[in-house]
Amino acid sequence: MPQTVELKVGMTCGGCVGAVERVLKKTEGVQSYNVDLQQQKVTVVGDLDPQMVLEKVAKTGKPTSFWTN
């Protein structure tokens, strides 16, 4: 069953967005994603483990944490 993972990622430019998108494209289980530079929010949908997604995105070198409302 697909689940949604929301992350806060410290992105400052289009290059940052590209780095996050490249990681997500290579991540198994990702069905779709949205990267919002203005909100610094990454939403990922798929059959995946939230902690694994956080760790993969953090490997871009950007500050990464789970999104809190």
Automatic annotation (TrEMBL):
Keywords: Metal-binding
One Pfam family matching this protein: HMA
Segments forming domain HMA: 2-65
Organism, scientific name: Klebsormidium nitens (Green alga)
Chain coiled-coil ranges: none
Alphabetical list of InterPro entries matching this protein: HMA_dom (IPR006121), HMA_dom_sf (IPR036163)
PANTHER family: COPPER TRANSPORT PROTEIN ATOX1-RELATED, COPPER TRANSPORT PROTEIN ATX1
Recorded GO MF terms: metal ion binding
Protein's name according to its UniProt entry: Copper chaperone
